[in-house]
Amino acid sequence: MSAGSLYERHRAVLPGWVALYYERPLELSHGEGRHVWDVEGNRYLDFFGGILTTMTAHALPEVTKAVAEQAARLVHSSTLYLSRPMVELAERIADLSGIEDPRVFFTTSGTEANDTALLLASAYRGGANQVLAMRNSYHGRSFSTVGLTGNAGWSPTTLSPLQTLYVHGSVRTRGPYAGLPDAEFTAAAVADLEDMLAHTRPAGVAALIAEPVQGVGGFTSGPDGLFAAFREVLAREGIVWISDEVQTGWGRTGDHFWGWQAHGAAGPPDLLTFAKGIGNGMSIGGVVGRAEIMNALDANSISTFGGSPVTMAAGLANLGYLLEHDLQSNARRVGALLRERLEAAARRLAMVREVRGRGLMIGVELVRPGTDEPDARLAALVLERAREAGLLIGKGGGPGAGVLRIAPPLSLTEAEAEEGADLLVGALERAETGWEGGDRP
Ligand code: PMP
């Protein structure tokens, strides 16, 4: 069973859909700051952070120390007995959420956080089983969340215990309202939402779940204020607004600590789900929301491992570091620099349709040159070229999977941003030349 390369062993023992990046998959050995090393000793600038899980930095000493100390003291679940690290992290997140009289529940992943939010919203709404989700969304791939994931490439089945109604509004530059100015785009999306609700029984609709900036969907978002306008419609019917902040939380978008704040006029969402970066790689997810909804469930605790002390210790140390060093401001400043560099290069490259995003969440949409068609194969080629140059990025997002995703740890320095931009532009140029020469993966 253990003969062959690690990749062969991976293929033999894991299901085929546990997909890996790169023609020659990478085995990482260690990390430090914004860099990781593979087992062959090659160093990479990490512009994806394990899909936004490395929020502050690799091997951050503060987090490592907190984890080691807690692991040496007690590794346990946080159900049944009082847990200081869990209560302390819940208090910090409650304070930061902006939600009035909040309660926090910890899970082990973003998927489970969304599952829990749906369960709560449905219970609060008397067992309602319809959910509004955005087209091109990603909320997980468990049985309940997969049906909300409106990006077909990421949704292996349409079977779902919930009935999902997909709303338009998070993709600005494609689709029926492409090119409309902000106010008209928002008005058109609101009219669509109202029309959809007019054709259903609103009492059967539990929630709207939406990412403020779509992550897997290619770092795309509607105009600022869109969800404030949606919320007015939802509030008329008492429908719960769930903001899925799994990618947009913790200052990632630079201008705001949470993505919903770009829609500030609406006030905070009823429920907010989080995961990914808060544990800096340790598995923490959770929901924070209004007590009235959070308490709607008539059940005992619903997770054994959610809130376990070692992950909570990581979360506390990581969040403390983030706030103390104001990494949100760093994301805004260094993100703007990085984006400027990429935008300037994009003007020369026919294959780049758009550079977009905010803070350190930047998408580069690639198209087949001379057309408007997303080009997933070209994105895969750029990914390979970037790796050869010592840069790790994300791919595959967005309609047609043609978007490169850039989301480095939030402590990225200006020098690293400039270096990474140069490496990426070089990879784009080499891929463009390769493309013309027929060098397609
Ligand atoms: N929501 C969003 C917005 C995500 O990006 C993801 C993960 N890509 C999830 C939920 C699911 O999180 P997890 O993979 O931790 O279950």
Automatic annotation (TrEMBL):
<dbReference type="GO" id="GO:0008483">
    <property type="term" value="F:transaminase activity"/>
</dbReference>
<protein>
    <recommendedName>
        <fullName>alanine--glyoxylate transaminase</fullName>
        <ecNumber>2.6.1.44</ecNumber>
    </recommendedName>
</protein>
<dbReference type="Pfam" id="PF00202">
    <property type="entry name" value="Aminotran_3"/>
</dbReference>
<keyword id="KW-0032">Aminotransferase</keyword>
<dbReference type="InterPro" id="IPR015422">
    <property type="entry name" value="PyrdxlP-dep_Trfase_small"/>
</dbReference>
<comment type="similarity">
    <text>Belongs to the class-III pyridoxal-phosphate-dependent aminotransferase family.</text>
</comment>
<keyword id="KW-0663">Pyridoxal phosphate</keyword>
<keyword id="KW-0808">Transferase</keyword>
<dbReference type="InterPro" id="IPR015421">
    <property type="entry name" value="PyrdxlP-dep_Trfase_major"/>
</dbReference>
<comment type="subunit">
    <text>Homotetramer.</text>
</comment>
<dbReference type="InterPro" id="IPR005814">
    <property type="entry name" value="Aminotrans_3"/>
</dbReference>
<dbReference type="InterPro" id="IPR015424">
    <property type="entry name" value="PyrdxlP-dep_Trfase"/>
</dbReference>
